[in-house]
């Protein structure tokens, strides 16, 4: 009975459940970040924060957060009171210098808008980075609590050899997709249960040593646009979330599993994949861990390439449209084009029976440029 009546306290606030207590802790982290990065007593900053709170761009889930939001509103209100006290003076000045005042206001509005956007972008970026770090920590803790953390590490040479994977018995038709597995018959790995409860679009987790990539991976049915600008928790964010092309199938793998992520300047999401453009890095970090929520999977990097988006009236090869090969001609076209676009290529060979993983992100080497990494499953 004591556990049911247990209360959690932060300062003057008391919470009846651990869930409410955790929400309050998250709100405190947000408030601490805002106070570290911004001077909330600056009227322009306070107004921008107030607008962001009002529009739902910054949200809080606890009374602590609500108290902070009220405090911001009070700062804004106090500033407007000062403006009202000076109303008579402002009116007189306006009558004498109407033209200058209009120009001044226009400049001030533009400055506030620019400054406000800068604040929003900076705060959103830092908060998003910290959220990603939190998710990675929680996953690591979940793995440690499961049976012996039995996941293979990309830093360790896999037991499977090249001969093991390439000398498999070929099916009469390696592109056939029969005897499909029903996802409902599979059990979710324990370390992903909590994350799946947070977001039912979760399909796996991607980890690449030597990079910042250690993120949940999502997939939305019939939609390759949503996670371009939405975080894992569903809030709007320009950094988006790592996601699988809706045409790919992670349970009954299509020939190619296509995964997208933004090339963020701060190195998050797929921003650190540009490291693969360095030959030494390409040679050292050869493995990609892409677990589905049902099983652990390990891939070996085959090649790194640069390409660009090809529009309808152009004839360029669209590697991002290669999802399922239906015959040897389509398979060979993919292999040949990947080879021609490769900046670096390993001696790992591809065969029609392989399960391919392609990571794709933007690259500024040319307009609408793309960097892509092709790997094959070995475990």
Brief synopsis:
The protein has 379 residues and is α+β, with helices and mostly antiparallel strands.
Could you outline the blueprint of secondary structure elements for this entry?
Elements: E1 8-10, E2 13-15, H1 18-37, H2 43-54, H3 63-85, H4 87-96, H5 98-145, H6 162-166, H7 193-198, E3 202-207, E4 214-218, E5 243-244, E6 256-260, H8 279-284, E7 287-292, E8 298-308, H9 328-341, E9 342-345, E10 356-362, E11 369-377
Parallel strand pairs: 6-10
Antiparallel strand pairs: 1-2, 3-4, 3-7, 5-6, 7-8, 8-9, 8-11, 10-11
Task: Provide tags for this entry.
2 domains, 9 helices, two-stranded antiparallel sheet, 9-stranded mixed β-sheet, alpha+beta, 379 residues, Sortase, Chain: A, 38% helix
Description of the molecule:
The chain is an alpha+beta fold and 379 residues long. The chain folds into 2 domains: 8-132, no CATH class; 159-377, Sortase, Chain: A (Beta Barrel), CATH 2.40.260. 38% of the residues lie in helices and 16% in strands. The chain has 9 helices and 11 strands. The chain has helices at 18-37, 43-54, 63-85, 87-96, 98-145, 162-166, 193-198, 279-284, 328-341; strands at 8-10, 13-15, 202-207, 214-218, 243-244, 256-260, 287-292, 298-308, 342-345, 356-362, 369-377. Strand 1 (8-10) and strand 2 (13-15) form a beta hairpin.
CATH architecture of the largest domain: Beta Barrel
How many runs of DSSP E, i.e. beta strands?
11
Described by its quaternary structure, the protein is single chain
Uncertain runs: 149-156, 160-171
What is the domain total for the residues? 2
Give the overall silhouette. Answer: globular
- Report the CATH topology name of the largest domain: Sortase, Chain: A
**Helix vs. strand class:** alpha+beta
- The CATH fourth-level homologous superfamily of the largest domain: Sortase
* Euclidean distance between termini CA atoms: 48 Å
- Which CATH top level class of the largest domain fits? Mainly Beta
Largest sheet: 9 strands, mixed
């Amino acid at each position: 009975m004591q556990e049911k009546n247990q209360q959690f306290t932060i300062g003057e606030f008391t919470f009846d459940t651990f869930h409410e207590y955790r929400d309050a802790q998250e709100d405190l982290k947000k408030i601490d970040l805002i106070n570290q990065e911004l001077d909330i007593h600056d009227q322009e900053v306070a107004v921008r924060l107030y607008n962001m709170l009002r529009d739902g761009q910054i949200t809080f889930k606890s009374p602590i957060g609500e108290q902070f939001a009220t405090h911001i509103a009070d700062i804004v209100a106090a500033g407007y009171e000062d403006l009202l006290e000076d109303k008579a003076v402002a009116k007189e000045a306006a009558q004498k210098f109407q033209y200058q005042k209009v120009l001044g206001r226009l400049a001030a509005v533009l400055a506030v808008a620019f400054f406000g956007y800068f604040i929003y972008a900076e705060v959103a970026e830092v908060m998003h980075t910290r959220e990603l770090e939190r998710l990675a920590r929680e996953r690591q803790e979940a793995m440690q609590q499961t049976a012996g953390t039995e996941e293979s590490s990309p830093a360790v040479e896999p037991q499977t050899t090249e001969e093991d994977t390439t000398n498999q018995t070929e099916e009469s038709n390696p592109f056939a997709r029969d005897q499909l597995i029903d996802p409902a018959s599979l059990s979710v790995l324990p370390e992903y249960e909590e994350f799946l409860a947070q977001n039912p679009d979760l399909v796996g987790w991607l980890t690449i040593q030597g990079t910042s990539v250690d993120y949940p991976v999502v997939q939305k049915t019939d939609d390759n646009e949503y996670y371009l600008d939405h975080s894992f928790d569903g809030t709007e964010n320009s950094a988006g979330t790592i996601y699988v092309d809706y045409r790919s199938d992670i349970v009954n793998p299509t020939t190619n599993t296509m995964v997208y992520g933004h090339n963020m300047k701060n190195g998050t999401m797929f921003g650190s994949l540009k490291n693969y453009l360095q030959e030494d890095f390409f040679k050292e970090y050869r493995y990609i861990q892409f677990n589905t929520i049902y099983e652990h999977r390990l891939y070996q990097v085959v090649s790194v390439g640069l390409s660009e988006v090809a529009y309808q009236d152009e004839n360029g090869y669209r590697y991002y449209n290669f999802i399922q090969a239906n015959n040897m001609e389509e398979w060979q076209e993919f292999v040949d084009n990947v080879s021609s676009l490769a900046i670096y290529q390993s001696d790992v060979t591809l065969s029609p029976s392989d399960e391919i993983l392609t990571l794709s992100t933007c690259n500024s080497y040319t307009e609408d440029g793309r960097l892509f990494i092709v790997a094959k499953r070995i475990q």
